[in-house]
Structures are given as C-alpha cells and as structure tokens.
Design a protein that fits this description.
The chain is of the alpha+beta class and 480 residues long. It folds into three domains: 13-169, Orthogonal Bundle (Globin-like); 200-303, Beta-Lactamase (2-Layer Sandwich), CATH 3.30.450; 322-477, Alpha-Beta Plaits. It contains 17 helices and nine strands. The strands form two sheets. It has a five-stranded antiparallel beta sheet, with helices on both faces. Strands 7-8-6-9 form a four-stranded antiparallel beta sheet, with helices on both faces. Strand 1 (204-208) and strand 2 (213-216) form a beta hairpin.
Amino acid sequence: MSKRNGSPGSVLPPSPGSEFSDKGRRDQLCDRIRRGEDWLIGRIIAYAKRQNFTRYTSTLEEAWRVSIHDLSEALITALETPLESTEFTSTETFTDDPMSAFAVLEAERHRRRGTELRMFLGLFKYYRQTYVDWLREAQWPADFEDRAVAFVGRLFDRWEIAFCSAWAPLGGDTLLGELQESNRAITNEKNLFLTVAESLGSPVILLDETDRMTYANRAAAPILGLPHRPGTFYYRAESAAVSVPGWLTELVRSAARHELNSEQVLELAGNETYFGVHLRPMLDVSDKFRGTVVILHDITALHRAEAALTERAQHHERLAVTDPLTGALNRRGLQILADKQVAMAIRNDRPLTVLFLDVDDLKVINDRFGHSVGDATLAAVATALERSFRVSDVIARVGGDEFVVLLPDRSAVDASAIVDRVVENLKTTIADACLEIDVGFSTGWAQFDPERHGDFEELMGEADAAMYSSKRRRRDQTPG
C-alpha cells in the first residue's frame, strides 16, 4: 500500500492554467493568439472543407472571421481571468463563470438556427485542432508548448461541456419550436434579400460553375426576353429554360473565373442600349456556390454624353486649325501638317513641293463690289483649289488673299503643270457662284531641298518670293 501511495503515478502534474500565472508567459501566449487570426481562418476553413462541414456552413469568409475572433477573445479573457486554473469539478454547472459564458451563448445561438449538437461538436473539435496547430507552429520550447496546448485543450473541454449542459435539458417540443422560429427567420431573410435583388435598377444575373443561369432579377428581364415583373425568374419554372445570351457566354469564357469589366451594346425596345458589364466570381470560401455574378449598368446616357463631348472637342479642334471663311486650313493647321510632311520627305527621300498663290486685286474687289463679294471670291478660290488637287494635298489660307498648297510626292514641274488646271477650275467656280467679276492670281512654287531648307518656313518663304517675282513680272508686262 505504501509503495502504491508513494509511486510516481500518485503525484499529479500541475494544472494547465498554473503555467500561465507568470505574466510574461501569459502575454506571450495572448500575443500568439492575437496575431494568428488570418492563419486560423484559413486552417479552419481547410478542415471544414476536408471533412465536408462546409455543406452546412457560411459561404463568406467574414462569418469564419467572426467565429475565430470570438474564440480568440474568449481564450485571451480566460488567460486574463484571475482563476486558479481551467480545471473543473464534479459540482460545476458551467453557467456562472466568464470562461463558460461564451460557450453557453454560442450553444443557444446555433441551437436556435437548427444546428444539431453532434454536428456542432464535430466542427468544434476542428476549431480546437486549429488552435493547437497554430500553437505548435510557434516552435516554442517543448515544455512551454505542451503547457500551452494543454491549457487551450482544457478550455475547449470546458466549452464543450458547457455546450452540452445548455443543450441537453431542452425537450423535443422546445427544440422543435426553436427550429420553426429559425425557419421563419431564414425564410424572411431570404425574402428580404430576394426583394433587394428584385428592387435593383441594374440587371443582375447569376451563373453556376457550368455557366447555366440560376437567377436573374427583374431589371435583367428585358435582356432575357422575360416578363418585366418582380420575381419572374425565381418563381416560374419555365425560367429554367432561358438560355444564356451568346455575348455573355463569350465574356464568361474570356473572364476564365476572374474579374472582368467590359461594354456591350444591346438592342432593347428598338433602341441601342449601352451597358457596362461586370463579371465577378462568387465569393464563396466553402465552394458550395461556384459561379459568376454578372452585373450590368446602363451607360447609354454616359456614352451619348461622351460622344457629344468628343464631337464638340473635334469641332473646336477643327476650328482651331481651319479658316472659317473658306473651310481650308489656317496657318496653324498648315504648320502642323507641314512639319510631318517635311519629316516624311526626308525619311523616305521623296519630293515635296509648296505652291504659293496670291489673289490679284482683292482690295479692288472689296472696294468696288463690297466685302461680301470679296469673301465669296476667296471661297471660290478655295473651292477651285479643292477641285484641282488630290485629297492628300494640303490646302491652306495663310493670309487675307494668300493661299498655300502643300504637294507631297510632287516636284516643282508637277506644280507648274497644275496651275493651268487651277485657272480653269476657278473660272467654273466663279461662274457657278454667279460672280460677274474677273479673278486672277499670281503663283510661285518651290521644291523642298534639305540642303537649302532648314525647315518648312524657309521652303514656304522661297515659294512666296517666287510668287512675288511672278507678280512683278506680270505687272511689268501689263500695259500702263
């Protein structure tokens, strides 16, 4: 007897909680628990998936985060509670101490949702294992690790007993009543979210992992050819036969289960409607609902506003480089294009010629017939130039009575040959405009030579000088 009483087996190990009476050790363990939230969430979800608990659990990570947070806070509270240990006795009720209060509350919450005790305890075992795994990942000294694991294990034991204590006394009628109340709450919650979805002004379509349509709200009805009534897709069996539009199928394939933003033009009620299309994978950490959420936003008004702004900007841009009287380019517009043409001529070793044209006696026309006739004359000259040259040639009015024509891939010889054509076209244009006046002009031209012309201004200056030389010769040849 004495041998048995004095044997090593009769000496009990210290309780798990006594190891953490030292504040340093306690703080070390609390810090480890606080820093592990993300890791703990990932591990419990992995356990729940592997053991098939996720068939009955929340789809959103935030629900798991709340449960881990609450468990961690309960563990830390237990560490900071001035109790001798987490041990329990044969007379404890587990309902009147801070360590068990958390468990009683959780038991009531899950019981009212209709969760079975066996299922609840089964998943809770893996919560315990999750925290044990996290403690062992710390690679503490073996004695400290064993104490930490034992403390957490004993606290989970208390909680499990508290679960059963709060759950077991209830009779079948009470449990059935709670379940019925829970079902009514779930039904109302479902109806709330269905009503929200049907009330949205933006079309929403849900596709499962096989890209089959599982839901579409009222705003999506016109796109799918369904009656525009709330709940049509949800409550009518024939909606299951609605096929996914081809354009949406292509977008889903290109998204490949990733986020995608796109635009789509659809013909609705005989009008083009522009939609911004947003594809998002379902945020289901349990993998019960794999698929794609499709949200469309009507951006027709925005598209039209952008088109109007673009058109207005282009109009202002044209005004900035266009002579308002003749419709030809102004000096600024000519300079922009001329610099590009000079660069291309140098790069491609191609000819480039400038024709300078000055309307004769425009001041006399203005004084004799009025400025309206003078303006009509200038417009007629611009029209004659358009009829005489190629689309690729650049026509500009650079002064009151001065015009410049830029001729890519044309030599000075070509420019000389074209002048006669301009004269004939000007006569026709003047006649078409019913202007009973004679209009003449003086011309000069110059071909770009990189050895002589540093830039376009020098080239145009040479053509201008040639034009004035021609004007002087004509003046000198005219009988006085």
